[in-house]
Amino acid sequence: MKFGIVVFPGSNCDEDCYHVAKDLLGCEAELIWHHDRDLKGSDAVILPGGFAYGDYLRAGALARFSPVMESVAAFAKKGGPVLGICNGFQVLLEAGLLPGAMQINRGLRYVCRDVHMRVENDATPFTMLYPKGSVVTMPIGHMEGNYTAPPETLAELAREGRIVFRYCNPEGRVVDAANPNGSADGIAGICNREGNVVGLMPHPDRCSETLLGNAAGIRMFESAVAALAAAR
Amino acid sequence: MKVEVRVYPKEGVLDPQGKAIAAALGRLGHGTVREVRAGKVFFIDVSGSDAKAVEADARRMAEELLANTVIEGFDVRVVP
Q1: Cβ atoms within 10 Å of A13's Cβ, excluding its own
Q2: Cβ(A37)–Cβ(A67) under 8 Å?
Q3: Which of A81, A184, A222, B29 is deepest in the core (most CB within 10 A)?
Q4: Which residues of B fall within a CB distance of 8 Å from A95?
Q5: Are strands A82-85 and A44-47 parallel, antiparallel or unpaired?
């Protein structure tokens, strides 16, 4: 199992993802510079958090034109698992690999804290090890995480079970007070129709070992390993 | 030639920035303000002298990059 982690100029969680894949899971992992079109035999691709291209124009707007994104799109189209974390999620939206767009948080501030999310879809290659309906706690750190989409897209996401995580209170209830950024329908993460492309704002890479006080995130990476093993 | 592209939140799309600015203007005593929507303007200098072609080109730029058409509208004005 090999994880490929894309590095844009301004990515800053690439090493965190690499550490989780390589040191914590003992998988192969490789950093892939955004000018590279070769995914180096990756079995799963991660677009990490950070500020690709300084978030100039809009978060993710310029990164989507990086040469590597053509390869990522082709990989996704063939069913390859792709995970976008935070800024990586924003890049997936701008690239059209996931529907919708991000707006500035409704509080107009950068929000950096732990949030609770309810697992709504346990069938993706990145969530299959989380029981559906369970509550997972992960940290967020973003300015533009206020997910929005046309009403018909939101309805489609709900109908097709493509909302992967929703912000909730510790008891698992999706309530407005638990929504840190104003996201439509409390959306914290979604997937594409096939389920192989997943994006979320919270950071599993920042909570993958007990040393950091929370290891809830490692299951996303372990899920990818399990999904690949199941597919083989 | 010079061309200006204005990009702004689509009608009906919540604009948290515009709302905050409207509230701030209200606090400053500008009681007449009913709504603010905040956008961006791009001042672009292009080669070429055919205004129609320049405008069409600028529209493509807006669609491809300058605006996120999921949430933003835009308009284009060739500066005479």
Answers
A1: 23
A2: yes
A3: A81
A4: none
A5: parallel
Residue A99 in contact with residue A157, Cβ under 8 Å? Answer: yes
Q: Is the ipTM of this complex over 0.90?
A: no
pTM above 0.80, yes or no: yes
CB A170 within 8 A of CB A135: yes
Residue A87: closest CA among A205, A215, A212: A205
pLDDT in tens, A133-176: 999 999 999 999 999 999 999 999 999 999 999 999 999 999 99
Question: CB of A69 within 8 A of CB of A96?
Answer: no
Determine which of B19, B42, B65, B66 to mutate to test the interface with A (most A C-beta atoms within 10 Å). B65
For position A89, what pLDDT does the model report?
Answer: 98
* Position B3, amino acid: V
Q: Token pair 């993710």 is at which residue?
A: A60
3-state secondary structure of A133: coil
Q: How is the beta sheet containing A28-33 ordered, strand by strand?
A: A28-33, A2-7, A44-47, A82-85, A197-200, A187-191, A163-168, A111-119, A135-142
| Whether the Cβ atoms of residue A138 and residue A216 lie closer than 8 Å to each other | yes
pLDDT number for residue B30: 97
Between A and B, how many residue pairs show a Cβ–Cβ distance under 8 A? 35
- Residue of A190, A220, A9 lying closest to A101 (CA atoms): A190
What whole-number distance in Å separates Cα of residue B64 and Cα of residue B9? 16
Task: Tell which of A53, A55, A57 to mutate to test the B interface (max B CBs under 10 Å).
Answer: A57
Whether pLDDT at A232 is above 90 = no
State the DSSP code for A126.
T
Q: Which residues of chain B have pLDDT under 50?
A: none
pLDDT tens for A113-123 read 999 999 999 99
Chain A, nearest residue to B21 by Cα: A108
CA distance A37 to A40: 9
